Amino acid sequence: MRFTLIVIVGLLFFSCSQKANREEQTNQKLEFHYVSYDMECCTMVDIQKQPVQYSFQIKDSTYTLTYIYQHTPKQDTITYILNQAPNFKVQFVSNRHNRSDELFSRVNSSSILIYSNSPGGRREYKVYKYSSNGAGMDGCVSHFWVPEFGIILKRNSTWRGFQKLRTNNDSINRQIELLTDIIYQDQDFYRGCQFELPDEGFEVKRERMIQEKENQVIQRQKRILELQKKQNNNK
């Protein structure tokens, strides 16, 4: 069983300009983007901003999250179908790959309690961790979902790069920063990308998908060698 983490935030001074800024942000349309931190090397980080259109629907406690990325030349729409119930069959679909990830699964969950001096200063957030791309050559990806904000953090278990959610609202950004800071410190929760396999059939399917990926790589290498051989014979 995971324990609840507590953050105490001391907000002591508020100026009139800060209050006016909060009121202005409350009235404006909420915009979302991910900040990508790509680890080029042990001491190098490539930081990029990725705007995204985010929308969600809730029906019978099931959340359908839709993220539209503006890629060139083709945009990518990613859909999550999630539920806080532990046995719910979650889904992850990317139209760029034109398929759903059959290995997408819930890994774990944690509770984070945040205190502040603002009105309603005690707030508990549930954070759910999911895994995707388990059979991929580039390693598994962890997705951290907070129902109030959506997917706040994504991390590649192999390359160590990660993406963090940001908005044009300072109050929401502060909450996300606090949540991600605590997630980083909980290494058992943050690191790795382990699967909770529901049954033996799922394990068999996973092994079969991994074998298919390996066979595709082998076949591609054979085609490259055959092409090189033909080119050498034509010289």
Describe it for me?
It comes from Rhodocytophaga aerolata. This is Lipoprotein. Residues 1-20 form the signal peptide. Keywords: Signal. The chain is α+β, with helices and mostly antiparallel strands and 235 residues long. The chain has two domains: 4-196, Lipocalin (Beta Barrel); 202-235. Helices cover 29% and strands 40% of the residues. The protein has four helices and twelve strands; from the N terminus they run βαβββββββββββααα. It has a twelve-stranded mixed beta sheet, covered by helices on one side. β4 and β5 (76-83) form a beta hairpin. The protein is elongated and about 80 Å long. The termini are far apart. Residues 5-18, 20-25 and 195-202 have low confidence and may be disordered.
In short:
Helix content is 29%, strand content 40%. The protein has 4 helices and 12 strands, in the order E-H-E-E-E-E-E-E-E-E-E-E-E-H-H-H.
The residue ranges in which pLDDT falls below 50 over 5 or more consecutive positions are 5-18, 20-25, 195-202
Can you list the strand order of the major beta sheet?
A: 1-8-9-10-11-12-2-3-4-5-6-7
| Named CATH topology of the largest domain | Lipocalin
**pLDDT averaged residue by residue:** 77
Termini separation: 67 Å
Number of strands: 12
Strand percentage, roughly?
35-45%
- Helix tally equals 4
Supply the CATH architecture of the largest domain.
Beta Barrel
Helical content, roughly?
A: 25-40%
Q: State the major sheet.
A: 12 strands, mixed
Return the structural class: alpha+beta
Keywords: Signal
Protein name: Lipoprotein
